[in-house]
Design a protein that fits this description.
Helix content is about 15%, strand content about 20%. The strands form three sheets. Strands 4-5-6-7-8-9-10 form a seven-stranded mixed sheet. Strands 1-2 form a two-stranded antiparallel ribbon. It has a two-stranded antiparallel ribbon with strand order 3-11. The protein starts with a strand and ends in a 13-residue tail after the last strand. The chain is globular. Helix 2 (about 95-100) links the parallel strand 5 (about 85-90) and strand 6 (about 115-125). It is of the alpha/beta class and about 280 residues long. It has helices at about 75-80, 95-100, 160-165, 205, 225-235; strands at about 5-10, 20-25, 50, 50-55, 85-90, 115-125, 135-140, 170-175, 215-220, 240-245, 265.
């Protein structure tokens, strides 16, 4: 509840809308309403490009641990609608895994709208293979690794997890790729060997050679660290994609989708399904 007084309000709906400002005055009253008219300056979907964030979370990080272990699908849809994301991938991970996995359906969530799709999938983070790099597993039909009932029974390296995901027709890759791949300076590419000591794309150069990695993530870690290893594999003839993500609200608490607009997929992309959506 806002106490009575004047307030400066900024409002918008993601980068396809202008950010506007208004002064409002809240009276001393039991109820009060304000209406805000959004001003859209472009609709990229009309040009065949669709926005998405393949890495947002509903538990851990800045979310509640009580009374629920994280927030509900209806809460996550509000994030997606608020930023006008065409696709939002809500990834369950180590914190609250056993509670949040109940929302996994292996398909687009029923709360989705025709223009704003939400889907629950998996980030392999807080699992035995985390030292090899965290993974985004998108478009899964099954979220439990074969013959496991607990996180600590999953493989201790990434390759079998990536191959298992791809066997389902999933799109799989590395999260927040730059962590652990620090290099000096801004030259791209550089022949400096990174330390491979973080939670980014540590195992990427092995997995891409096995055709087990579809993409690495970008924008939420330093650009040179992300791009250097990717450029080297491109120069070797491998064709893994790069995709913007936010890791909201872990890497950033700004908003879902602010980084991922850079990776919108055209309808003709191989990433999309028969109806044009990359889910």
């Amino acid at each position: 509840m806002l106490p009575p007084g004047k307030y400066e309000v900024s409002y918008g709906r993601g980068p396809e809308y202008h950010e506007s400002q208004r002064t409002i005055e809240v009276p001393q009253a039991a109820k009060h309403k304000e209406a805000f008219k959004l001003a859209r300056w472009i609709k990229l979907a009309d040009q065949g490009w669709f926005s998405g964030d393949h890495h947002i979370h509903s538990a851990g990080c800045a979310h509640y641990e009580s009374p629920a272990e994280g927030v509900q699908p209806a809460d996550m849809l509000r994030h997606i609608l608020g930023e006008d994301l065409n696709v939002g991938c809500v990834l369950s991970w180590g914190p609250c895994w056993y509670f949040q996995k109940q929302f996994f359906e292996g398909k687009v969530n029923k709360l989705s709208t025709p223009d704003n799709l939400m889907r629950y999938d998996v980030e392999v983070s807080g699992f035995p293979s985390s030292h090899a790099g965290h993974l985004c597993l998108l478009r899964l039909t099954e979220d439990d690794y074969p013959n496991t009932t607990r996180i600590d029974e999953w493989p201790s390296w990434d390759l079998p997890v990536l191959q298992w995901g791809k066997s389902q027709g999933a799109v799989v890759g590395f999260s927040h790729s730059g962590w652990g791949l620090k290099v000096a300076g801004n030259k791209l590419p550089t022949y400096e060997v990174p330390p491979y000591d973080g939670i980014g794309a540590n195992e990427y150069i092995v997995d891409v050679a096995h055709d087990a990695c579809d993409f690495i993530s970008a924008v939420d870690t330093p650009a040179v660290w992300e791009l250097n290893i990717w450029y080297h594999t491109l120069n070797c003839g491998y064709t893994a994609r790069i995709s913007g993500e936010t890791d909201f609200p872990a890497s950033t608490a700004n908003a879902s989708g602010w980084a991922a607009r850079t990776s919108s997929c055209p309808r003709t992309s191989r990433w999309t399904t028969t109806n044009g959506w990359p889910v």
